Amino acid sequence: MIKEEKNIEPKSKDKKKTPIIVIKDLHKTFGKDNTVLKGVSLTVNKGEDLVILGRSGSGKSVTIKCIVGLIVPDKGEIKVFDEDLLALSKDELNKMRVKIGFLFQSGALYDSMSVRENLAFTLRAHKRDLTEEEVEKEVLEALESVGLGDAIEKMPAELSGGMRKRIGLARTLILKPEIILYDEPTTGLDTITSREISELILDIKNKQKTSSIIITHDMACAKLTADRIMVLKDGVIHAEGTYEELEKDEDEWVRSFFE
């Protein structure tokens, strides 16, 4: 277990671990004095699910949005697949994004499109050489992977919150990403549905060999999905360890997440 106020590099005695995301000394300020990130450093290894905890406004979502280029940091280094993300051209960044799935809190579905059209639109935007039959096959496979093959004709307004999250995840999976960034995947869901989504995250990792960062306030989700947990406080990584290690941490602020 590591507990410091900045620039934490996770410990690793296993030399076989392969870093797939490496962030060093990330800073981000909005406006004149709203400094959100003050030197965040972290590593995600291939095949690992890393959970990031923190109070609202601590910089969790800002950190993962920097990884896909939705937010540009003021300072720091981001390497994904050993490529300097901040040095990529627009075209290079778009190619990188295909390898990185992002599940937004809301699912971010297009309300005017059916479930089929939502998934097909995403697929065609990145794989324009596919035939209609190939698109249909990919859409069905993605929906089956989240257990919602029978929802293909539905409109987003007809879906429950849990179904919207699943469809959003199917739309992410249709491009077969190697990394998935989950932004509060269980927010707003009941206990049973939240557990189903958490189990689905695990299932995707095991079947598709993805690496993930999971932003969550849901400690049941964190306990079920996390290989490792990092806690953000005041714009830096404050603590790092397994669920069991942090649950017993002597730091009262860290333990408060587990009470």
Tell me the strand order in the biggest sheet. Answer: 6-7-8-3-9-10
Looking at the overall shape, the CATH architecture of the domain at 1-97 and 211-259 is 3-Layer(aba) Sandwich
Q: Let me know the number of strands.
A: 10
Look up the CATH topology of the domain at 1-97 and 211-259.
Answer: Rossmann fold
What is the beta-strand fraction?
A: 15-25%
Number of helices: 9
Euclidean distance between termini CA atoms: 19 Å
Query: How is the biggest beta sheet arranged?
Result: 6 strands, mixed
The value of Rg in angstroms is 18 Å
Runs with pLDDT <50, length 5+? 3-15
Shape: globular
Order of helices and strands: EEEHEEHEHHHEHEHEEHH
Q: What percentage of residues falls in helices of 4 or more residues?
A: 25-40%
What structural category do the secondary elements indicate? alpha/beta
Descriptors for this entry?
single chain, 259 residues, alpha/beta, Rossmann fold, 4-stranded antiparallel β-sheet, 9 helices, 35% helix, transport, ATP binding, nucleotide-binding
Structure description:
This protein has 259 residues and is α/β, with parallel strands linked by helices. Strand 1 (19-30) and strand 2 (34-45) form a beta hairpin. Helix 4 (132-145) crosses helix 5. It has a domain at 1-97 and 211-259: Rossmann fold (3-Layer(aba) Sandwich). It contains 9 helices and 10 strands. The protein has a 6-stranded mixed beta sheet with strand order 6-7-8-3-9-10, sandwiched between helices. Strands 2-1-4-5 form a 4-stranded antiparallel beta sheet, with helices on one face. 35% of the residues lie in helices and 25% in strands.
